[in-house]
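Run log, item B.
One chain of 187 residues. Sequence copied directly from the ordering sheet:
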Amino acid sequence: MRSDEGILIVYKLHLYLIRVELDNIDKQVLFLFSKDPDICQQALAQHVGVTQPAICLRLQKLKKRGIINEGHDINFNALGMKLSLAKGQGNLEKLKKSPYFVAGFETKTGLTGIFCGENEETAKAVPKMMMKTTTSVEAIASFDGNFGIRLRKKGECGLSCKKCKAYGKCLGLPGTKWYVGKLWKVA
């Protein structure tokens, strides 16, 4: 990356941070998190010059505003998970409730989503059932990276596993009696 590209990225981040009305302490906290996602509250407090309880309140505020989340990056390859990429039409807010939904975005032409599953069939079946229409669903053969999500034990796809035509290919909804997978099963 050229140095002027780096300056532009920092400038755009700075403009974004101004737009969401963060003060200097919030900005410092976000910067420290970007360098070390596992930093503890006491270390954050020492770096920015406030107390640990003050950091705790700020983190709660940032979480409530959706600026940071409680999740950690998950390496799907290390878990043996399969991913799929789906394009079509759908409701992004509804998809966010599914434990199989990883990430997505809307464009002028529709919705693109990344879904996970303990097997390829589940990763490909879930978007077909959850999206209004799908123009394509394909397995992601190789992925090098992590996603910042948390494993959700429960969720809703809006369908009853008993009535869903994908059940059998899909492992069922975690947190229900229909789930036959292993990852979200708690002993």
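Observations after the first pass:
- The chain has two domains: 3-68, 71-187.
- Residues 131 and 139 are 16 Å apart (CA to CA).
Flagged for discussion on Thursday.
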